[in-house]
Automatic annotation (TrEMBL):
The lineage of its organism: Bacteria, Pseudomonadati, Pseudomonadota, Alphaproteobacteria, Acetobacterales. Residues 100-113 have a biased composition (Polar residues). Keywords: Transferase. This is Asp-tRNAAsn/Glu-tRNAGln amidotransferase A subunit. Pfam families: Amidase.
Length: 420
């Protein structure tokens, strides 16, 4: 952190003295053979949209400058109870949907780290932390993890308790976890699930505390989504190589070119942008309108645009967007008897050279809407930069998706001689 923070700018605020005291206490527990949980001693950073009792939560907006909630969010509370060490708060875009912050990509500081979980992804990617809290309302965990060479989990909607996460859109908001390894991400998810459960009424993720044993899938669905059209050739070749290696290992790959059901799903995925933005705009009217009440100049253009969109909507249009999402979920669920999961990229290429734009959402948005689990796996590269492979699963089958993610990691890293 001392070496790289000036270039990466991942942190908003921190308390390293408190972190060292917590680390000493954790070391004593391990020496005594009495760790509190698998995350005891894990260095963790917290996106500055998520409440912490000891550090302010400022959301990259002057309205909340210096604001302290006097409580930990549910996920932060759970990890502290498990002995994790909170290093500090990390940069977010404005209210997780607007202007970007100062964070730079740790692999190339001329490039974006992605958003809105920019600081957490950059801190993990730079080796400053083992795990970072993020959120995802459209693409804000999977995309930055892919850009920054990190693992990530966007769990089934509601399966990780979102209490204390500043709300944006209730049926889209997910708590996200970005980690240095699949083991780190899964351990954090399970400690949260065991200690605080999911967002009620969801009971939380079920599964073993350790990463479930790697399981070779019998069939995976390859998805192009709208993102394929904007994906450069080098990234296409990296993805094609991974799919070929998976197929060579004996996994059936079905896609829109050889399966009618997948073709119909691909057609539907090309049209999700409009209803996804309708869902976000309608559900985010509050709190975004309440922020704008402090003065139009206090919020950025993205928030102004969402409020303008919501002003054109009525309840019937929102209901149509909800119905469109349910249709998408039904089409995905119908493939559960034939396939074990879905393969796509985390983003349309490596991180872009634009700090004002965090990148396309076209690969990450589908599984936000589906609400099932999605893992970012830093197993590919293009242009000498990280390129994330995304493994998506069926709702409430997070443990099963993790076991397939572990198999993909082991298979593809073995193919590449052990290097991501």
């Amino acid at each position: 952190m001392e070496r790289d923070e000036s270039a990466v700018a991942a942190f908003v605020t921190h308390d390293f003295a408190a972190a060292r005291r917590a680390a000493d206490a954790s070391a004593a527990r391990w020496r005594a053979g009495a760790p509190l949980s698998p995350v005891d001693g894990m260095p963790v950073v917290v996106k500055d949209m998520i409440e912490t009792i000891d550090l302010p939560t400022q959301m990259n907006n002057p309205i909340y400058a210096g604001w302290a909630s006097r409580r930990d969010a549910a996920g932060v509370h759970a990890l502290r109870q498990g002995g994790a060490i909170i290093l500090g708060k990390t940069v977010t875009t404005e209210f997780a949907c607007g202007n970007s912050g100062p964070t730079r990509n740790p692999y190339d500081t001329s490039r974006t780290p992605g958003g809105s979980s920019s600081g957490s992804a950059a801190a993990v990617g730079a080796g400053m932390a083992s795990m970072g809290f993020g959120t995802q309302t459209h693409a804000s965990t999977i995309r930055p993890a892919g850009y920054c060479g990190a693992y990530a989990l966007k769990a089934t909607h509601g399966a990780l308790h979102a209490g204390g996460v500043t709300p944006l859109a209730a049926t889209l908001d997910h708590l996200g976890l970005i980690g240095a390894s699949l083991e780190d991400v899964w351990a954090a998810a399970m400690v949260i699930s065991r200690l605080v459960g999911g967002t009620p009424p969801h009971p939380g993720i079920s599964g073993p505390m350790d990463v479930p044993p790697a399981r070779k899938p019998r069939c995976l669905v390859r998805l192009a989504t709208l993102g394929w059209e904007e994906t450069p050739e080098s990234s296409r070749l990296a993805f094609e190589g991974a799919v070929a290696a998976i197929a060579a290992s004996g996994v059936e790959i079905i896609d829109g070119g050889n399966d009618d059901d997948v073709s119909a799903l691909e057609s539907e995925l090309r049209d999700i942008g409009e209803f996804a933005n309708d869902l976000l705009a309608w559900e985010a009217r509050w709190p975004l309108a309440s922020y704008r009440n402090h003065g139009a100049s206090m919020v950025g253009s993205r928030i102004q645009d969402l409020l303008a969109r919501s002003a054109t909507m009525d309840a019937a249009r929102y209901a149509r967007a909800v119905a469109d999402r349910e249709g998408l979920r039904a089409r995905v669920a119908a493939l559960a008897t034939r396939a074990d999961g879905f393969l796509m990229l985390c983003s349309s290429g490596p991180a872009i050279q634009d700090h004002g734009f965090t990148g396309s959402r076209n690969y990450a948005l589908p599984w936000t809407l589906v609400g099932g689990p999605a893992f970012a796996l830093p197993l590919l590269s293009a242009e000498d930069l990280p390129l994330g492979l995304q493994l998506a699963g069926f709702a409430d089958r997070d443990s099963d998706a993790c076991s397939i993610a572990a198999w993909l990691r082991d298979t593809l890293l073995s193919k590449d001689g052990g290097e991501a």
